[in-house]
Every structure is written in structure tokens, then in C-alpha cells.
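testing teh design pipeline on a random one, pls ignore if ur not involved
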């Protein structure tokens, strides 16, 4: 229960990658965290790539930067929809600017690109968006998990155990 009294947000949109949402959700819950699903709209149901529903708890426009101790951006095709919503992008940009913990996996890196805060940051992502990450200024590396200060990135679902352990580790470190 290392994350008791902590709140973690997971961004959601249609066509999310199931494992990249549900694996972190349940691991963070196991550690005692409250986990919120954040979408373009609150209390709306979003379907995964394979049709699994989830309902957002709050809209990005109603979220304040200090309400969360961490924000996770899953992949799938969802980030392509997320970044079309200015409030979703602003949510990520505000956290990056405030040096709050942000984790992005797979295509979640697209939200980092859109936030404008990748310049000079060491990061990874799914290889198909490598050029996007580099063009946004990232020092892109092909590793299962990369931590650069308050930014944690991973490549794909197979990297989830290390990705989530790293996020939990950063949160525990920040408590000390």
C-alpha cells in the first residue's frame, strides 16, 4: 500500500489500448491509490480498440494540475483523438510545465509531442512514432523504460511491468 492517499489520473479516449489502461489501473489500486479516468468529457463511456468500455470520472477541462500525484497516458489509437482536444493537451502541458510526474507508453508519446515539452528530454515510445518524438525535440532511445526526472516513458505493452514499477518508485521517492 505504498500509494495510499495518492491520486493518479489515466487519460482515456476512444480506441485506447486495453492493457495500457487496465494494467496500470489495477496495479495502482493494489498499492492503495485512487485512480481517475480523465477524458475529453466527464461521465462518458469510451470503447477500447476491441470494444471494452470504461467511463471517465472527470473531464480534462475540470482537472486542476495539483489534483494528481501522477498522470498516465496510454497508447493505442486513443492519443490521436486525445490530442485533438485542447483541454487534454493542456492537461499534459500543465503537468509537464509544473514538473509533475507524467508517464506515457506506446503512442501516448503523441500527447507529449503535442504538449510542447519534449525538447531536450530523454524518452522512448513505440517505434512507429520515433520520428514524431525526435521532431518534437526528444532524445529518443529504444529502451523498455526511460526516466528523465518527472517523465517516465515506455515502448509497448510488454514493457508495462517496468513502466508501472518505475512510476510507483518515483511516487514513493517523492514521498521521502
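output:
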Amino acid at each position: 500500500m505504498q500509494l495510499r492517499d495518492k491520486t493518479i489520473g489515466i487519460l482515456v479516449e476512444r480506441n485506447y489500448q486495453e492493457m495500457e489502461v487496465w494494467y496500470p489501473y489495477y496495479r495502482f489500486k493494489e498499492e492503495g491509490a485512487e485512480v481517475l479516468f480523465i477524458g475529453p468529457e466527464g461521465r462518458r463511456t469510451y470503447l477500447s480498440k476491441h470494444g471494452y468500455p470504461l467511463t471517465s470520472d472527470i473531464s480534462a477541462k475540470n482537472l486542476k494540475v495539483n489534483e494528481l500525484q501522477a498522470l498516465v497516458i496510454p497508447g493505442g489509437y486513443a492519443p490521436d483523438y486525445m490530442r485533438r482536444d485542447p483541454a487534454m493537451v493542456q492537461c499534459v502541458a500543465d503537468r509537464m510545465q509544473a514538473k509533475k510526474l507524467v508517464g506515457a507508453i506506446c503512442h501516448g508519446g503523441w500527447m507529449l509531442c503535442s504538449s510542447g515539452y519534449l525538447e531536450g528530454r530523454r524518452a522512448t515510445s513505440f517505434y512507429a512514432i520515433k520520428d514524431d518524438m525526435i521532431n518534437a525535440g526528444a532524445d529518443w532511445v529504444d529502451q523498455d523504460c526511460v526516466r528523465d526526472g518527472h517523465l517516465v516513458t515506455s515502448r509497448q505493452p510488454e514493457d508495462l511491468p517496468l513502466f508501472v514499477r518505475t512510476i510507483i518508485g518515483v511516487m514513493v521517492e517523492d514521498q521521502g
